Amino acid sequence: MKKLGLLLITIGLLFSGCGTLNLETGAKMTNSIILDHSRIEKKIYVQVTNTANSGGEKMLLDKSIKESLLERGYVIVESSSEASLGLFVNVLFANNLKEAKAIQAASVLGVTSGIVAMGAGSSTGDSLLIGATAALIGATGAKVLEDETFKAVVDIHVCNYKEDSSRRTRLFVKAVQMYLDIDEAMPILEKETTKSIVNIF
Hints:
By secondary structure, this protein is an alpha/beta fold. The protein has 5 helices and 6 strands. It has a domain at 26-32 and 41-93 and 149-198: Double Stranded RNA Binding Domain, CATH 3.30.160. Helix content is 42%, strand content 27%. The protein has a 6-stranded mixed beta sheet. Helix 1 (2-14) packs parallel to helix 4.
């Protein structure tokens, strides 16, 4: 009977709560980069690198940035010596940290709950069941019920070769939605990152 009650509580906890059904995105730069558009000669050298790993290498910005700049009337040149402006972009991180956090939290929660139950006088079998239940709520519950949050961290360096000046900033982008996976999230992060970068120009 006790185990049945525990199971009902587990089910109630597992399927309670809410998540984000509609996609939410956001982007923020650490510093503003402002260019005088009236004085810009629209020849730009673009270099995009990606030093992220563990899934972050799936974020591909080179093509989308160059296409967006072409739409704004810029000419993409092959060498910085030919350019008036230089745009250097590096992806530092692009992935979902939630799953790793959930596994870590579940392990701690499961072990702690089992120890507490044993200390309260529960049998070994009941203690293990409580610990497993807590771990299930910590891992499976978080995975099923909570939002999936993907984030990207991108360094941006803009050079004005005509004025011999440069500016740097770091861009943070996020995409939040229930059940969002990495293959769906990467194009969203790419789009939001491209938009933020190209809006400088």
